[in-house]
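Hi P.,

Sorry for the delay on this. The queue was packed all week, but I finally got your sequence through. Input first:
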Amino acid sequence: MPERIGAYRLESPLGRGGMGEVFLAWDERLERAVAIKRIRNDAFAQGHQRERFRREARMAARLSHAAIVQVHDLVSEESGDAIVMEYVEGPTLAERLARGPLALAEVVHLAREIAEGLAAAHEAGLIHRDLKSENVVITPSGHAKILDFGLARPVCWDGEILTQHGALIGTCYAMSPEQASGGDLDERSDLFALGALLYEMLAGCSAFRAKDPRSTLQRVLYEQPRPLAEVRPDLPPALVALVERLLAKDRDDRPRSALHVAHKLERIARELPEEEEEWPERNDDSLSDMPTQAFPSPSGSRTATKVPPAPQVAASSLRRARGWILFLAGALAALVLALVAWYMLGQRPVPPPPAPPALRVLVLRPEIRGARDREMELVQSNVFFSSWRRLSNLKGISVLDSAMAMGSQSPREAALRAAADEVFYSSIEREEKIVKVRLERLQAGDQKRWMEEFSVPATDDLRWDVTQEVEKRLRRAYPEFPSSSDTSLIEVLDNDYADFREVLEHLEDGTLDLPADLDRLDRIVRSSPNFLEAVVLAAELASTQYQSTREPADLQRAEQYVELARKLAPESPRTWEVDFNLALAAQRPDDAESILARLEESHPGEPDILLLRASLEESRGRLKEAEDALLKAVDRAPSWSSMVQLSRLEMRQGRISVARARLEGLIGQGPDNTWAKGQLAYLELIYGNLERAEWLYQELADANPQRSYFTSLGQARSLGRHFEQAEAAYNRALELEPNQVVVMLNLADTKLDLGQTKAAKRLYRQVLGRLDENKIGPHLPPKEEMMRAQCLARLGRAANAREAVQQALTLASDDAERLYEAALVHSVLGDEKEVLIYTKEALERGMPRRWFEGSSAFDPMRGNAEFRALLESDRSEQGH
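Then the structure:
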């Protein structure tokens, strides 16, 4: 054995084959172990073949993929050329299989990684030509690495299978039929070899190996292996079908790409059972002619021949030993200092430093350039949700809702509206038989931090191929942020994805039909139960519907979705957030507090978490604490959603002009912002100009016919004493959402104002029935209890009405709206003393006098001087 090859010092032989030898060597310049394969000069039949070998070695050196052993260097000497490669510790797959069967999940995992490595090399223009178990190394952490990529082509290949001595060039049982017959090769030849490798891992024996090379070739060319379903009846049918396609004699019948195979294996892996049966032992005969035949790890079952170390080796080892001694000494000193500090601080551990603020990234919906059709829209949705999911699972990144940037004309404007630090922008464009994709990571000022473009063939699985390419590149786009969990996109049926995209568009453009779109999400989740985005959205919409209807069935529906989200992504902040919102809607503040505490611990100071804190404090009536949390959120990320929420709190605390100015500013920035416009309409309805409120609600209802808009429009008309128009608005609201109790109660009051007493009482009784049906536990929530009290009072059941009022105020004694409703019920019952008490308290807590003046329920109090004085006093204090 020579002492050196080029600049590398050889330490021990690792293997020998028909073309050369492999050595373990030491790179003295970079101080690392490497593997060197030296190819003998006589392995090249012609001079041009040697040059082709060098060219392919240079191409292989440009490959950089986790599943491919990296080529570091090419050394040319008189004795031959040498390839310097990454040294990977671990047994070959052949050695691993010799020790016994692999678990099915491990087989699929390794095969997927090998397929991904093949895909990367094929994209670079390289094919392996000799993929087999001896050319795959299993790392100590259980990952696959392919050896000899781009180098394994038999360098003396001349179109014939046999040399003049009858020796087989290559590995016959791993050859594709076209390779065995001397035909032209392409990437699909490697797929055949991958199929043979998969068959071997699953069946425990080669698919084609026979007693001699010629018989083996006959099998490769003309015979089918024993059906895998017979050898392993426990295997998933999808896996059996994939192996059969890979081993197709006609390469046109094989999968079209290694990336497609990797995607199929990923889907199969998700469906594997938890327990598996063992498979037959492997026949360990070998016909490999490549040097990697005996390429054991030093820690493997075979022992490499040791060479006495040269003096330089001893010096190098000594330097490494001294480095470890210094490292250990430093670590020990640091430990001692830490213990002393701990003792001097009163034996209290020093708290960890606060986590840095999260990078706020707004993921924009991909732009479709050129022709737009259903397939491109599905690709658009796939790219959007794949990007959203992967970035959501990167530690240190907070992904913002794309709706926060609605109406934006540029990424810069979108970043400003959503208060984002960065924008992830993408575009897709179809060109003949390919789809071009562009990905960009932009700072808020439109400065590019990263950009990449690539093309994907327009095939049957276009959207999945594009998705996998996007996910692969996203790993490179944000290298400074580690992943917290697997982010691979779950497969979703095409129709489900199309339906989900429509529901999302309804939500974003304000045309959501809550009951119908929620039913559509039901169907999507039943059909694609692992589609996390659909599950989360369904949970949010079901929770919203429950808040509106208070139907136990809607609550149960929302809880089922939340439970499914917990199973799919138990550690995702998105799951915790939807769980929090449901707890809040279901009047479980302690549960909401517990969930929020987890979020605050894992994401301290995150603006979105501060918004949740504000919602919780507001639900408890602690408006000052809620405002404090909101102000912090607005200070750190002044997005339109946080500004709208802040304006609502300002209204509830009587700062009407401040809230109005804030909302008008938001509408000025984005005239299509329906949330800000709706909040301004509510402000005018409660505190401001009734005519403006009616105009705003009519405009919102015309653009997007929603029950809530027609209900508020009816309230504005009713307060203005336009009862017939109010009745029409309430009827329209009930057409959109039948049996909605708030609308039914308002309609009953309006019919009473119109003199339709019988119809009104019938509606009051229907509302009572609906409330009793929705009751969970001994009592209704305060809002629903007050609705019940109003119906009881209108139906003449005074004692029951007074009892319901007290029950509601026990839970919400500081809520201005509940105090107003208490005054209304007592006015209907003729309890003047109680009316004055609750009116005064409601006005003091910010309830506008307009509601007392506009409601006919207070007509019996119009002649009461003290009541008029309370309203006049409120007028002078608010300057109205």
